[in-house]
Specification:
Length: 493
């Protein structure tokens, strides 16, 4: 087949694709229409709907055939779905000698990038001239009594600080925020304040080891019960007993569901569901075994947890947060219903202008990943919104092998919706904690350049980590924007 015939065949395929995507996107937008109160988000929602429609199809072979004609661009259409398809169709029409609609102007083609930039500024503040990617830093408790901590962040142009409401109290939070304001007055650089709702925490409670030893190993049986029910355990064999602080997790688990203990150090599969709790067989544990302890994380990735993401403690904290923060990080959000719950609570404590508060959706579970389009539309349709890839909990929930894949997909979805994405958890962790970075974590940090913001955890060397991160991100800016190579001249060869 010659190039003209190949172009004509591809033209028909792309033309049909445009029609099908348009119809499917319109149907999805119809379902979302009542959720979108902010008119500025409507074009972004329309592009997201089109992106979801396109990605329902396997276009790998189409991509390869376009490459032969020098027209491969579908792999970078996240922020401009319909303009990209129209441009490819116009180019194919020209190659095939057909009369067809021309490609749209460049203003339309790059409008999605401008929308993303505007939405990122609304959440993160004005861009820092030192670094193209925003930096978010977690505050240690000591920052409440150390004004220089915030001042050093401000002098480095850090865009935002994070206060974790799972720790400390309102007095400590207020002192931290006071130091942020003082740093802005002295440095001239204003930092955003994000406050992280603690959310429902599933933890181990009391532990009852069997007579044969205190360490649990592969093949052992784990009995999981509600708090106060250790005495009800009835096992045919000697087993390890542990309380679960969330009764709904024990009640909702079914045969075959997995249970992870202590950030995935131990994995077990439910073999029996009893009136008093669960019996699970350990499938993954270190060769030396694991000593079960209280206050360790429990994850039920396969279980439909019928619990609200907004706890009573969160509601209690919300009045302070709504009065003092620029943004709220929403832990354990899993559904559009959860977002509506928080937005209703905000409307109660800050009725006049709660929509000015940014909402950061922390994606920590497999359910949140599956519901992400609806989460984004429910949130961004009413207030400034960002998505945080909370890789710590997420990797336990979905498995380490899938973390990189899902991380990529969240980045693509955020770009399609023109919603900024925050790359979080263990970025430059060795450097922050010890002052020396590993080769692997520097590569990980370089990959974070495709996000809109990078979060650093607390640690004694966080200032040094910020300095190195900003240098690294500046260098990466010359090479790559999102998925697109910038084709800067290489100087190495």
């Amino acid at each position: 087949m010659n190039d003209r015939a190949a172009a004509a065949e591809l033209y028909d395929e792309i033309d049909a694709l445009i029609g099908d995507v348009g119809k499917e996107a319109d149907a999805r937008i119809g379902a979302w229409r009542d959720l979108i109160e902010d008119p500025d988000f409507r074009p972004s929602a329309a592009n997201l709907a089109a992106y979801l429609s396109v990605r329902r199809r396997d276009l790998r072979e189409t991509q390869r055939r376009l490459m032969v004609l020098g027209l491969s661009s579908l792999g970078r259409l996240e922020s401009r779905v319909m303009p990209t398809l129209a441009a490819v169709r116009a180019a194919l029409g020209a190659l095939a000698g057909r009369d067809c609609d021309p490609a749209g102007p460049s203003e339309v083609y790059f409008a999605g990038e401008r929308r993303l930039d505007a939405h990122a500024r609304a959440v993160l503040g004005e861009a820092n001239e030192r670094c193209p990617i925003a930096v978010l830093v977690t505050c240690p408790t000591e920052a409440a009594d150390d004004p220089d901590f915030m001042l050093n962040l401000a002098r480095r142009g850090v865009e935002a600080v994070r206060i974790n409401c799972a720790h400390d109290d309102e007095d400590v939070w207020a002192r931290m925020i006071g130091h942020v304001k003082a740093a802005a007055a002295e440095s001239g650089h204003r930092m955003k304040v994000f406050m992280d709702l603690a959310g429902p925490k599933i933890r181990t409670g009391k532990v009852e080891p069997p007579k044969h030893g205190k360490k649990i190993r592969k093949g052992d049986v784990l009995a999981v019960v509600r708090e106060g029910d250790l005495g009800r355990i009835d096992c045919d064999t000697d087993c390890f007993g542990v309380e679960c602080t969330l009764a709904g997790a024990v009640a909702g688990a079914e045969l075959g569901d997995r249970i992870f203990v202590d950030d995935g150090k131990l994995s077990a599969e439910v073999e029996k569901v009893q009136s008093w709790g669960l019996l699970a067989r350990v499938s993954v544990a270190s060769e030396d075994g694991l000593k079960l302890k209280g206050e360790k994380a429990l994850n039920f990735p396969d279980t439909d947890l019928e619990i609200d993401a907004l706890t009573e403690q969160d509601r209690s904290d919300l009045e302070f947060i709504a009065a003092h923060a620029n943004g709220i990080e929403y832990s354990f959000v899993q559904s559009a219903k959860d977002v509506r719950l928080l937005q209703a609570a905000l409307a109660q404590v800050r009725p006049d202008d709660w929509r000015d508060l940014a909402l950061i959706l922390k994606i920590e579970t497999a359910q949140a990943v599956a519901a992400l389009p609806d989460l984004i539309v429910q949130a961004a349709g009413r207030q400034p919104t960002a998505v945080m890839i909370a890789r710590g909990d997420l990797s336990v929930e979905i498995g380490f092998a899938r973390t990189a894949e899902i991380q990529e997909e969240i980045l693509w979805l955020g770009e399609a919706a023109a919603v900024p994405v925050i790359w979080a958890t263990q970025v430059l962790e060795d450097l922050v904690k010890t002052g020396a970075s590993s080769r692997g974590e520097m590569t990980d940090a370089a990959m974070a350049a495709r996000a809109d913001c990078v979060m650093l955890n607390k640690g004694p060397y966080v200032m040094e980590a910020i300095d190195q991160l900003q240098v690294l991100l500046r260098r990466m800016e010359d090479h790559q924007h999102k998925k697109a190579s910038m084709l800067r001249r290489l100087r190495t060869w």
